[in-house]
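Technical note accompanying the year-one report. For the benefit of new consortium partners, we illustrate the data format agreed upon in the data management plan: each record pairs a sequence with a structure-token string. No post-processing was applied to the example shown here.
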Amino acid sequence: MLFLLPFFDICLIHRAALPPLSLWSCEQPCPERVTKPHRGLDKEDPNRHAKAKEKLIFKKPTTITQLTVLLQVSDLVQRYNREGITVWASADAATLKECHRTNDSMPYSFSMKRGVLLLLLFYSGLLPFVPLGESLLQFYLPSIINRTYIPKKKILRNRLVLFLIEKITMRKSLFEHLAARGIQVHLFVCNEEEDIKAAFDVGATGVMTDYPTLLSSYLHRNRCQD
């Protein structure tokens, strides 16, 4: 699975700096609005096919190959000058390698394989001496599993397994080390205030949520308290 994610510090963004809604809608194609074109519209909109193609690339590829999709995504990111704030992100190492090969100027996240290697380097004490090309680490906040997120894999429903995962991965010293090296750490999906607080307390530089207003309110309150 391939994700394209915005890459910036939300605390540094002001409402006035955001583009108008109409402009944002034009620059961020919405696949849900892609409909079968009606005949006789070519004269009204000669760019109809190009616009539909731009929207199509954000849908799961079917008849077109993955490589073609990656090339087109890269072209759009470059065209709209989004290379600095858009990252390649995938749990699959092979997919992520292909993404990086397509456009190596875009930052990219840790794959699952590289994430495991990261933990091995951390616990062996070798991490400070090993260069890292990734710019982003993303991971589930373990405490939400089986509470607000029910995994499909049965092994993740085991309390002992979850306890070990949390103890091994949620290391504040690890996250602080990554942040010091300029690597952002994002935990998800934090849909309750206690989860947002837990993510920041453990050293996350950012969180993902389905409720941006909740996150915005939390950040505003805590910024005022500080």
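Partners are asked to follow this layout when depositing records. The longest helix spans residues 66-79.
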